[in-house]
């Protein structure tokens, strides 16, 4: 692989041997990132006790009176105390100390560093790491996003197993194009995005995780970290699995769905290896039964020979279900939540990933990583103009090598090379020609492509201190992208194009310290450029230009600016984030539901997010409010489907009567414009505001080994709201007719809708229960 070929050029010679008993350690959080501010104590059997606080890069150092057996103890806010026995000698002088879990259910929901505590690996001051124990399941016992991230609503344009997407203020990322998702493997970010997915410009599928195996979820602004590449424009969400899992079995369900998950691990607590399995069956919440099946595994092995920490990850997933999909708003009950009972989805994927972190010496660290993935999709949908099938099979491979070096206590640098490749085979769109909801009928090919998206990105970054109060980060990621599109129906539209561009990033932070200005908030300012690759498939409309000329630009570019202010006082944390992102002229979503490619034009997004968090001795409460304005720079009109107002309140209470632990979250998404109108459809559509209340109660027994849980959601309205044009003659209560065949069998068969309506998925309130048993032995 590429990083193996690069290895001889980047490996540094280890430091020479020395008789001084000096130990250097690095404290990592549960995600594998360096953790500043952790208290580390090192004690010996003879009574020697040494103490240190980890720096911004997570490092600590000790000078020992002699080599021998020592006990290391690490304490950090929000995490359980880590205790390790160490046999220290000249060959084990470099130590990795990785925290394994949070302290208790009363710890902070958000483990976010101070605005001034940035590092090479975490340079975004808006970054938040949310520990799994404090987050509510978004859909316990059902498919979809595994957790609810405060301030980031989850919407779906379907049902069943179809992947839902997180939203952020002012971003209409229905398929996740400007939102990156990563799977943390050690300190490596393996991409979970599926560029040029058969359903449009691409989305990420969070269905692959066994919920109980998740350790944390981290989010940041997306554009300010050189380690984050394609799709990281407005948000990057990183899912981290637990380094250790205690053996368990959990049954979750209600009268419509049932889910069984189990985790297995060695009885030896020193071994960091486990496998978690999950099986799910059910019919969902809507009136159209899903007949859903899901099966998945997550497995991890972490071992640390010498100065290395090696992480191996394996994920497997299969899912199949029928689905309701979008229906005209207000007619869910009349239509049994579907306009076509033939709609269904089938997906399977497998992921293998590895990461090696080598502490070469006290100042140098070398990481080498790689992953391989397969993915298959077969999705049957009806968006008002007849049944379509979107299908693909792809392989994905990636590799990264990077080295970091600490020049002085106040200056460090990093450089590396990242490689990613998506090979998408049979990226097809077919249109079935039967309007009978009981018959598929013959089908017509609309799109058939083989696509390769290849990215080679060298990157460099530097982080340092400018005195006591100022800290800086600067980085550059050069993206060299190949977009190879083979159109099997219209060979003239095929093209192979390389494009290179720079993505600079920079952050400057200021902290008031303990002097006369200590009453001022900490502040940071960041700038960054980012990109995502467009879907290279061209419009199905007739008279299209040849080759890549159909694309306004094969790459969406963005420039982002971010200001973060933070003040902590009396167990309160107040944070305000102001941001502005401009985007280049871009191709609209090439959704096969409409098959029409339009230039959206350049756009500007402005947003303000304010959050307040207060921690009690028995829990915490947090409120987030976001306001955004996203517009087309050419027309001045609002960007359709971009949420303008988001409000979220999350609370955890540990000392409820009867020994209960409780969590509750209220989330509100306000009005947003769905369609500004056009000459063919002059009417404007606006989404109905949506409010959701999630609750979770847990009662532990037998010292926590047995847990009984109650989950529920109170909701009304429609999620995934958008607009669709239905075929002529369609009326509520009748199946949508198939468009009449045209001369070439393409445009008139696929984009003939004239009846425009606001559509969505009807939301249903529910309540369910769970029972979990955690075995006394093992982890």
CATH architecture of the largest domain: Beta Barrel
Number of strands: 44
Distance between the termini: 35 Å
Overall number of domains: 2
Distinct helical segment count: 2
Structural class, from helix and strand content?
Answer: mainly beta
Question: Which word captures the global form?
Answer: globular
- The helix fraction, in percent, is under 10%
Supply Rg: 26 Å
Sheet with most strands:
22 strands, antiparallel, barrel
Mean pLDDT: 83
Uncertain spans, ≥5 residues at pLDDT below 50?
A: 1-18, 104-111, 539-543, 588-597, 742-748
- Report the CATH topology name of the largest domain: Maltoporin, Chain A
Strand content: over 45%
CATH class of the largest domain, named: Mainly Beta
| CATH superfamily label of the largest domain | TonB-dependent receptor, beta-barrel domain
Organism: Silvibacterium bohemicum
Keywords: Cell outer membrane, Membrane
InterPro entries: Beta-barrel_TonB_sf (IPR036942), CarboxyPept-like_regulatory (IPR008969)
Subcellular location: Cell outer membrane
State the gist of this model.
2% of the residues lie in helices and 53% in strands. The chain has 779 residues and is mainly beta.
């Amino acid at each position: 692989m590429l990083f193996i070929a690069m290895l001889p050029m980047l490996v540094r010679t280890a430091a020479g041997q020395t008789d001084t008993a000096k130990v250097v350690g690095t404290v990592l959080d549960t995600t594998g990132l360096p953790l500043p501010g952790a208290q580390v104590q090192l004690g010996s059997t003879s009574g020697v006790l040494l103490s240190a606080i980890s720096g911004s890069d997570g490092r600590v150092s000790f000078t020992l009176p002699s080599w021998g057996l020592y006990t290391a103890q690490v304490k950090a806010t929000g995490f359980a105390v880590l205790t390790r026995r160490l046999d220290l000698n000249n060959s084990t002088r470099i130590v990795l100390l990785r925290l394994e879990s949070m302290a208790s259910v009363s710890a902070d929901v958000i483990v976010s560093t101070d605005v001034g505590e940035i590092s090479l690996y975490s340079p975004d001051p808006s970054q938040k790491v949310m520990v799994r124990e404090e987050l509510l399941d978004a859909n316990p016992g059902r498919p979809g996003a595994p957790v609810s991230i405060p301030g980031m609503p989850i919407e779906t344009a379907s049902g069943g197993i179809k992947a839902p997407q997180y939203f952020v203020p002012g971003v209409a990322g229905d398929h996740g194009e400007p939102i990156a998702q990563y799977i943390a493997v050690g300190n490596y970010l393996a991409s979970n995005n599926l560029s040029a997915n058969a359903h449009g410009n691409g989305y990420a599928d969070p269905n692959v995780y066994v919920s109980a195996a998740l350790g944390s979820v981290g989010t940041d602004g997306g554009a300010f970290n050189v380690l984050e590449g394609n799709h990281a424009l407005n948000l990057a969400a990183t899912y981290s699995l637990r380094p250790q899992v205690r053996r368990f079995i959990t049954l979750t369900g209600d009268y419509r769905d049932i889910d069984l998950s189990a985790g297995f691990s060695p009885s030896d607590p020193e071994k960091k290896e486990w496998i978690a399995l999950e099986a799910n069956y059910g019919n969902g919440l809507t009136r159209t039964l899903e007949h859903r099946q899901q099966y998945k595994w997550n497995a991890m092995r972490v071992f640390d020979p010498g100065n290395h920490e090696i992480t191996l990850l394996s994920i497997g997933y299969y899912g199949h279900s029928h689905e309701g999909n979008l229906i005209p708003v207000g007619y869910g009950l009349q239509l049994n939540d579907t306009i076509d009972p033939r709609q269904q989805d089938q997906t399977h994927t497998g992921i293998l990933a590895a990461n090696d972190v080598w502490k070469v010496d006290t100042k140098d660290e070398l990481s080498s990583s790689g992953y391989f993935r397969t993915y298959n999709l077969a999705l049957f949908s009806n968006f008002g103009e007849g049944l379509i099938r979107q299908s693909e099979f792809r392989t994905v491979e990636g590799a990264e090598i990077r080295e970091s070096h600490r020049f002085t206590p106040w200056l460090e640098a990093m450089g590396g090379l990242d490689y990613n490749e998506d090979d998408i085979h049979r990226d097809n769109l077919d249109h079935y020609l039967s309007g009978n909801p009981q018959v598929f009928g013959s089908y017509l090919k609309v799109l058939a492509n083989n696509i390769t998206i290849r990215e080679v990105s060298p990157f460099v970054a530097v982080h340092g201190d400018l005195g006591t109060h100022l800290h800086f980060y600067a980085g550059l990621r050069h993206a060299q992208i190949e977009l190879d599109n083979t159109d099997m129906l219209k060979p003239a539209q095929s093209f192979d194009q390389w494009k290179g561009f720079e993505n600079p990033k920079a952050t400057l932070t200021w902290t008031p310290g303990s002097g006369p200005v200590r009453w001022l908030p900490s502040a940071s300012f960041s700038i960054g450029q980012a990109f995502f690759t467009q879907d290279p498939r061209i419009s199905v409309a007739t008279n299209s230009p040849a080759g890549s000329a159909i694309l306004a630009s094969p790459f969406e570019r963005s420039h982002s600016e971010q200001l973060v202010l933070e003040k902590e006082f009396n167990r309160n944390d107040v944070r305000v984030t102001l941001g502005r992102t401009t985007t280049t002229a871009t191709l609209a979503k090439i959704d096969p539901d409409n098959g029409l490619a339009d230039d959206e034009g350049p756009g500007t997004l402005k947003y303000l997010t304010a959050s307040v968090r207060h921690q009690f001795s028995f829990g915490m409460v947090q409120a987030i409010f976001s306001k955004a304005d996203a517009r087309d720079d050419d027309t001045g009109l609002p960007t359709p489907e971009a949420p303008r107002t988001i409000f979220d309140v999350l609370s955890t209470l540990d000392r409820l009567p009867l020994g209960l632990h409780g969590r509750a979250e209220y989330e509100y998404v306000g009005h947003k414009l769905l369609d500004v109108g056009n000459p063919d459809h002059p009417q404007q559509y606006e989404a109905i505001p949506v409010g959701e209340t999630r609750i979770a109660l847990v009662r532990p027994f037998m010292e926590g080994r047995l847990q009984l849980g109650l989950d529920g959601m109170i909701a009304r309205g429609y999620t995934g709201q958008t607009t669709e044009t239905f075929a002529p003659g369609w009326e509520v209560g009748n199946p949508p007719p198939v468009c009449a065949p045209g001369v070439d069998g393409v445009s008139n068969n696929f984009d003939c809708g004239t009846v425009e309506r606001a559509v969505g998925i009807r939301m249903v309130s529910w309540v369910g229960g769970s029972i979990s048993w955690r075995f006394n032995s093992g982890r």
